[in-house]
Design goal:
Blueprint (H helix, E strand, L loop, with lengths): L39 H14 L19
């Protein structure tokens, strides 16, 4: 209650710029983007499954996901 969120009148204007640094290792100077979020997806799914199974006392800890005590 003591701190108000800044509005457009309190925030300075932003400046946008593009910096181009071509790769010397590819013919067109292109660089790969990669799969930045590929590692977080399995962790998020595992957390959601563990939250859903918590009332049942089951907590899968490795992938492929199998409930503990399933015999597999």
């Amino acid at each position: 209650m003591d701190y108000l969120l800044p509005t457009i009148y309190e925030v300075p204007m932003t400046e946008k710029a593009a910096i181009v640094t071509p790769s010397p290792f590819s013919p067109l100077g292109a660089k790969g983007v990669g799969e930045g979020a590929i590692h977080t997806t399995p962790a998020a799914i595992m957390c959601a499954i563990n939250d859903a199974l918590q009332p049942l006392g089951s907590e899968p800890r490795r992938s492929p996901l199998r409930p503990t005590g399933s015999g597999n």
